[in-house]
Write a structure and sequence with these properties.
This protein starts with a strand and ends in a 12-residue tail after the last strand. Strands 1-3-2-8-5-7-6-4 form an eight-stranded antiparallel β-barrel. Strand 6 and strand 7 form a beta hairpin. It is globular, with a radius of gyration of 16 Å. 24% of the residues lie in helices and 36% in strands. The protein has four helices and eight strands.
């Protein structure tokens, strides 16, 4: 599995409602994409939930890297570049991902955690996967992903949640404008 995430900063006076409309219109296209667990259309609005600037982003969990590559080669990113320009696409290995019992994801949280240089990586990877499994079993969690950025030796934790920022959630919080979830239900169930 591979996680892909890109962000476009928006002007302070940008019509955020137009982004929500765009997400709903484009979301239907993504609801049937093969080899995609989910695509989250994300918003951060100045003054809401701790955001200091407006931004629009998308975070994907692909079943395998070839699906992500095929999307790029078919021109899937062109509609984004035509509207917003080309952003850096961060990509991370997904060590594992689990579904929770909650139904509606209203927020996505991304938390980046540095892995100290002297860490036993094998134990750290196993521990991170177990933490993701346990997080998925918590109330209000739709999915929990344990990711790895091997370039910067950072764990990338992603959670889809019903909870608003401040309800015990950690990391940068994003409002979910639309969640396409073609294969999300096929993830293994999280458990404690």
């Amino acid at each position: 599995m591979i996680i892909a995430h890109y962000t476009h900063r928006l002007a302070a006076n940008h019509d955020v409602a137009s982004i929500r409309t765009r997400a709903h219109e484009r979301g239907a296209i993504w609801d049937k994409v093969p080899d995609l667990y989910f695509k989250a259309f994300l918003l951060r609005e100045t003054g809401r939930f701790g955001a200091i600037a407006n931004s629009f982003s998308s975070l994907y969990l692909w079943k395998h890297d070839q699906a992500f590559t095929d999307w790029l080669l078919r021109g899937g990113y062109k509609i984004v570049t035509d509207s917003f320009g080309r952003a850096d696409i961060e990509t991370f290995f997904a060590l594992d991902a689990f579904k929770g019992k909650a139904g509606e994801a209203r927020f996505l949280y991304r938390q980046d955690v540095a892995i100290p240089p002297d860490t036993d990586l094998t134990k750290a990877f196993a521990g991170e996967i177990e933490q993701a499994r346990a997080r998925a079993a918590q109330p209000g969690i739709v999915a929990s992903i344990a990711g790895l950025d091997p370039r910067n030796w950072t764990f990338v934790r992603v959670r889809l949640s019903e909870h608003e920022p401040g309800d015990g959630e950690h990391g940068v919080g994003y409002q979910i404008a639309h969640l396409s979830r073609p294969l999300l239900a096929t993830l293994p169930q999280g458990e404690v």
